[in-house]
Amino acid sequence: MKSYLVVGLGRFGSEISRQLCRLGNEVLAMDTNGEAVQRMAPEVTHAVVGDARDKDVLKALGARNFDCAIVAIGDNLSASVLATMNLKELGIPCVVCKAYDDTHRRVLQKLGADRVLIPEQEIASRLAKSLSSRNVLEYIELSENYGIVEIAAPKSWVGQTLKELNVRAKLGVNIIAFRRGGKIMVAPGADYRIDPEDVVVMLGDNRQIAAVQKL
Fold first, then answer.
1. If 0-12 CB within 10 Å is exposed, 13-18 middle and 19+ buried, where does residue 181 land?
2. Is the pLDDT of residue 132 over 60?
3. DSSP string, 169-210
4. What are the CA-CA distances from residue 44 to residues 25, 35, 70, 136, 205 (Å)?
5. Cα–Cα distance between 139 and 133 in angstroms, integer?
6. Per-residue pLDDT tens for 52-92?
7. Is the CB of residue 86 less than 8 Å from the CB of residue 95?
8. pTM (2 decimals)?
9. For residues 17 and 140, what is the distance between their CA atoms, to the nearest angstrom?
């Protein structure tokens, strides 16, 4: 079980607080809005009214003892910056921040935030990648240029073994699993022969994945 401090209980902060708690983690959610805190209290480990711009408030809450802090103040640049700065100075191992545009993201990165995301941008990017090709079933972004994708097996692969295809050497992607019906085969061997019903789960950079989609 990990411990998380979530600062800001708007839609994003509230949802991530709920999800982290449902996954069995300890979650302390805080906001300056008493009503937001009251609504969240039944769904997390602890919920408190507090201002993360005040380092003494964070110290009193034992912020430095948390594994990760999430700054979900996306629409207030000064509050987001001060909260991030305070959390980094307190030595929290991982600080994840929500930003509302690229300028906000760059500022938070300069302050040392371990990860900065623009939720709407990331969702749009993932959806665009999923919709850009008919055979893409699911796309999980690992970084800006790298991801895991599920695609229907290309017709040119059907009937061939992984050894015969040698996709890692030829295309640079790594096949990590196959899914057929409700069954999943993880780390298939070189003699695995691809079936027309197979869904391929592969890992690679976006250019490599795009090359496979064109087969």
1. exposed
2. no
3. HHH--EEEEEEETTEEEES--TTPBPPTT-EEEEEEEHHHHH
4. 9, 15, 14, 36, 37
5. 11
6. 999 999 999 999 999 999 999 977 889 999 999 999 999 99
7. no
8. 0.62
9. 21
